[in-house]
Design brief:
Elements (H helix, E strand, L loop, with lengths): L13 E3 L16 E3 L8 E3 L2 E3 L8 H8 L4 E4 L5 H10 L8 E5 L3 H13 L5 E5 L6 H13 L4 E7 L2 H10 L3 E4 L9 H5 L5 H15 L2 E5 L5 H10 L3 E4 L13 E4 L2 E7 L4 H8 L12 E5 L5 H18 L7 H4 L2 E3 L10
Parallel strand pairs: 4-5, 4-11, 5-6, 6-7, 7-8, 8-9, 9-10, 10-11
Antiparallel strand pairs: 1-15, 2-3, 12-13, 13-14
Helix pairs in contact: 5-7, 8-10
Bound molecules: guanosine-5'-monophosphate.
Length: 345
């Protein structure tokens, strides 16, 4: 047994130190980024905030709304080929720049992925997503997908440490998804004791990825626009959100009304709710590692988008970053013991 004694931090343990700035207003800040990828040939330009590939947030409706802002949606893996066809037929051509196809690593997953890519070769992004990205099987699967699809952008995860980021990039991934246990409806840390504070995971993994010419997505744990800004400040190239995009018109989940108030259900993808929906109950060998919650209904996602982008723009003005790309360079975190004044919350 070994203990690492240097402290690892989450979003709530830090704030961003304000810096002298020549920017006049947050309207002067550009949140667009352009990336070249390690393996895939064609690059990407857009606002690197994305909806999680959960069936409650990675919906076609969400993708349509977010693409208006050049934001991204990792579409969940439970849509049928027919549903994909109907969506792509009706959507604008540029939508393929702003969505990823998600897949697990089973043989049925591979078959479905192949079918989708054959039928819709315009799809450019493949998100290979497992709860624990540390297995040999996962690395082999990433290699297989890279061999078969040399031109596609491959997202792979989830991991939280530098050496695994490197291994997955070398196996063929372009972008690594980072986060184990920080999610709003995740119970992994409770059930297994495993995890890594998200901000420190970002800092470590961004350093490993950028050294090799790859990118990372910070996945999970953001509760506010300030947390999104901290994730970018720590070095995340993309930030993926579940809870912050839940409860909207474009979100999945059941709309329920109680005492005149509307709610939408939101649940983890390995919660009992999701497992019952897709695999006929919780498999005996694994604990359910997600929970189900009711979120107050928030209407169209547009207001939330404005709130997030406005917040991050404002962060950039506080530290003098004219572009989102400069935010990490201009970020100094200060460790804190307090965050918000909770007098009226
Ligand atoms: P949030 O933005 O809600 O904090 O985090 C979203 C992320 O939580 C997802 O992108 C995914 O990585 C993770 N997640 C979603 N469902 C589950 C689940 O059932 N269990 C675990 N451990 N993580 C989940």
């Amino acid at each position: 047994m070994r203990i690492e004694l240097d402290i690892k931090l989450g979003f709530k343990n830090v704030m961003i130190r304000p810096k002298r700035s020549t920017l006049k207003s947050r309207a002067d800040v550009s949140l667009e980024r352009t990336f070249k990828f390690l393996h895939a040939k064609k690059g990407w330009t857009g606002i690197p905030v994305m909806a999680a590939n959960m069936d409650t947030t990675g919906t076609f409706e969400m993708a349509t709304a977010l693409a208006e802002h050049k934001m991204f949606t990792a579409i969940h893996k439970h849509y049928s080929i027919e549903q994909w066809k109907a969506f792509l037929d009706a959507a604008e051509e540029s939508i393929t720049e702003h969505i990823a196809v998600s897949t697990g690593t089973g043989s049925a997953d591979m078959e479905k992925l192949n079918e989708l890519m054959n039928q819709f070769p315009q799809l450019r992004f493949i998100c290979i997503d497992v709860a624990n990205g540390y297995s040999e099987h996962f690395v082999k699967f990433v290699k297989k997908v890279r061999e078969k699809y040399p031109d596609k952008v491959i997202i792979a995860g989830n991991v939280v440490t530098g050496e695994m980021v490197e291994e997955l990039l070398l196996a063929g991934a372009d972008i690594i998804k980072v986060g184990i246990g920080p999610g709003s409806v995740c119970t992994t840390r409770l059930k297994t004791g495993v995890g890594f504070p998200q901000l420190s995971a970002i800092i470590e993994c961004a350093d490993a990825a950028h050294g090799l010419g790859g990118q990372i997505i910070s996945d999970g744990g953001c509760k506010s626009p300030g947390d999104v800004a901290k994730a970018f400040g720590g070095g995340a190239d993309f930030v993926m959100l579940g809870g912050m995009f839940s409860g909207h018109k474009e979100s999945g989940g059941e709309l329920v009304e109680e005492d005149g108030e509307k709610f939408k259900t939101f649940y983890g993808m390995s919660s009992e709710t999701a497992m019952e929906k897709y695999s006929g109950g919780v498999a005996e060998y694994r604990a359910s590692e997600g929970k189900t919650v009711k979120v107050p209904y928030r209407g169209p996602v547009e207001d939330t988008v404005q709130d997030i982008l406005g917040g991050v723009r404002s962060t950039c003005t506080y530290v003098g970053a004219k572009k989102l790309k400069e935010l990490t360079k201009r970020t100094t975190f200060i460790r804190v013991q307090e965050q918000l004044n909770e007098m009226f919350s």
